[in-house]
């Protein structure tokens, strides 16, 4: 005659139990005491959905469901007076029948419920939280209250991307995502009237189902966002900042907002080299690289509409906010010339270097960021060149002009006057600005331009006869070389300094050997002033 309830399984966690007025979804098997089944929700493939304590159930079931937890299983014996009494249900339940129900509670909610949020991880730094009209990217597992999985973005290996608070989501999710930080993890429990309501979604979610979303927020931006710049290190000395049209070399690590690395110039062991403000890089980077100093480190946060947009690219998903940690190695402008800073000049500085002079100097060569490339000091010997003869890069030829012995200067050479886009493999990076700290140690004055040999006195009127020592009317290379060496050794003549003697003499001889037969005759032999008049090659 009494209602009997046997609790056959009670879950360890029971955050909420059924109270009168709650709406429940449950499965059941209905049988008579002899085991004959008269009804089953399992056979129909859907739960029984009903309010408790509002007279929508037989009295015994109204009482038996109170206090149940989701996933709890109860065996209920209901006497006729709390079931269908003396009348029964024609064709189904006879009069005065005792009913047995095996009940499993699937879902539970109340019309006064709100969205429940349980945050179980929050990053220490949370510079920004989700607001209405923000666009978010997040992963989720979607389950019912009993833990049954109905959907997962992880299984699709793709985030769910959407605007928040403008009706693109079910109302409960719109509420549940507000206030989240990137990297935050929370569980959002949504009653059906803030989800898919009485009808469900027509596929995986039944009507009147409470939904539980385990969410991790990966990305967040607003369509009105511009780039954000966080200065991490700015050198004390910053003589110049990048402008539109400059060419930059920089290192970077590229990550998503959640810290996932998608690219790094460091891993390639090569800087990224590009013009700024010319559309060679994404719009956000074009903007973020303006106003930087050499050696500066900054973080540039770029919203997707200034990055790779809705489609993404490679390892970058669509609608992703990008974070670039950059280190500026150097920059220059194609219009730059050589920059010369004199650090020391002797008081007696009358003889200045010019084209053709033979120079001996020490140098330290480095990049703009201070990376040492080369040093004559470490080699223990000077670097020796003929100025303006193409033995060094154009910028160095320019930087060594008008210098006196003992002078020290710093010469900054842009790449188009240095080693260009290719650089020197293994030594000088492509498109690198070079910095030379130079000290001139010795200067040997060169000859006038166009001369490889000059006389220090009057030229003999019988020059050819003097060279032609055997008086056969022909001068061989050996005779020519021997004569020139004798003039230099005696001080009567001077060769252009810094060049190989044999090469200079052979060049001079070849210029005189006009028919190319290896011999110079008196008719072929001419001095410079004679050749100039006749527009021939000069000696």
TrEMBL record:
Q: Does the keyword Ion transport apply?
A: no
Q: Which reaction does it catalyse?
A: [protein]-peptidylproline (omega=180) = [protein]-peptidylproline (omega=0)
- Species of the source: Chunga burmeisteri
GO cellular component terms?
A: endoplasmic reticulum
Q: Where is the EF-hand domain?
A: 455-490, 500-535
Region (Disordered), start-end ranges: 512-539
UniProt cross-references to PROSITE patterns, sorted A to Z: EF_HAND_1, EF_HAND_2, FKBP_PPIASE
- Cited function: PPIases accelerate the folding of proteins during protein synthesis.
Listed name of the protein: peptidylprolyl isomerase
Q: What is its EC number?
A: 5.2.1.8
The entry's keywords: Calcium, Endoplasmic reticulum, Glycoprotein, Isomerase, Metal-binding, Repeat, Rotamase, Signal
What InterPro entries has UniProt attached to this entry? EF-hand-dom_pair, EF_Hand_1_Ca_BS, EF_hand_dom, FKBP-like_isomerase, PPIase_dom_sf, PPIase_FKBP_dom
Its subcellular locations are:
Endoplasmic reticulum
Pfam families in the record: EF-hand_5, FKBP_C
Gene3D superfamilies, A to Z: 3.10.50.40, EF-hand
What are the PPIase FKBP-type domain coordinates in residue numbering? 21-109, 133-221, 245-332, 356-444
């Amino acid at each position: 005659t009494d209602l009997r309830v046997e609790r056959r399984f009670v879950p360890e966690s029971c955050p909420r139990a059924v109270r009168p007025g709650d709406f429940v979804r449950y499965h059941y098997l209905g049988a008579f005491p002899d085991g004959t089944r008269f009804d089953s929700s399992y056979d129909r493939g859907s739960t029984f959905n009903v309010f408790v304590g509002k007279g929508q159930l037989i009295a015994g079931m109204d009482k038996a469901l109170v206090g149940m937890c989701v996933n709890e299983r109860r065996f209920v014996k209901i006497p006729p007076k709390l079931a269908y009494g003396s009348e029964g249900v024609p064709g189904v339940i006879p009069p005065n029948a005792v009913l047995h129900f095996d009940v499993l509670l699937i879902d539970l909610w109340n019309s006064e419920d709100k969205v429940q949020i349980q945050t179980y991880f929050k990053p220490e730094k949370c510079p920004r939280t989700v607001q209405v009209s923000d666009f978010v990217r997040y992963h989720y597992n979607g389950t019912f209250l009993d833990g049954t999985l109905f959907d997962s973005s992880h299984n699709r290996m793709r985030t769910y991307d959407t605007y928040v608070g403008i009706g693109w989501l079910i109302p409960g999710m719109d509420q549940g995502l507000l206030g989240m930080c990137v990297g935050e993890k929370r569980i959002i429990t949504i009653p059906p009237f803030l989800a898919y309501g009485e009808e469900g979604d027509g596929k995986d979610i039944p009507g009147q189902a409470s939904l539980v979303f385990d969410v991790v927020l990966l990305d967040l931006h607003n369509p009105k966002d511009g780039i954000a710049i966080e200065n991490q290190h700015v050198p004390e000395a910053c003589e110049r900042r990048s402008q539109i049209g400059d060419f930059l070399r920089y290192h970077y690590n590229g990550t998503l907002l959640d810290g996932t690395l998608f690219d790094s110039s460091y891993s390639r062991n090569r800087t990224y080299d590009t013009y700024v403000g010319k559309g060679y890089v994404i719009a956000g980077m074009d903007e973020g690289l303006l106003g930087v100093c050499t050696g500066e480190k900054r973080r540039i946060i770029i919203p997707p509409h200034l990055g790779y947009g809705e489609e993404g690219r490679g390892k970058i998903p669509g609608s992703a906010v990008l974070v670039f940690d950059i280190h500026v190695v150097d920059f220059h402008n194609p219009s730059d010339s050589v920059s010369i800073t004199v650090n020391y000049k002797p008081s007696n500085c009358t003889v200045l270097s010019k084209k053709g002079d033979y120079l001996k100097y020490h140098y330290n060569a480095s990049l703009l960021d201070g990376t040492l490339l080369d040093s004559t000091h470490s080699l223990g010997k000077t670097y020796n060149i003929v100025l303006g003869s193409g033995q060094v890069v154009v910028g160095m030829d320019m930087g060594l002009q008008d210098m006196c012995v003992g002078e020290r200067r710093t010469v900054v050479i842009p790449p188009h006057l240095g080693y260009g886009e290719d650089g020197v493999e293994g030594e000088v990076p492509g498109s690198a600005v070079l910095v030379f700290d130079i000290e001139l140690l010795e200067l040997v004055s060169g000859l006038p331009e166009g001369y490889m040999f000059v006389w220090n006195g009057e030229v003999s009127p019988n020059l050819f006869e003097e060279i032609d020592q055997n008086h056969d009317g022909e001068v061989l290379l050996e005779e020519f070389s021997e004569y020139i060496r004798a003039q230099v050794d005696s001080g009567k003549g001077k060769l252009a300094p810094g060049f190989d003697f044999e090469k200079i003499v052979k060049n001079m001889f070849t210029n005189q050997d006009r028919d190319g037969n290896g011999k110079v005759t008196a008719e072929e032999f001419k001095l410079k002033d004679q050749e100039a008049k006749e527009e021939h090659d000069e000696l």
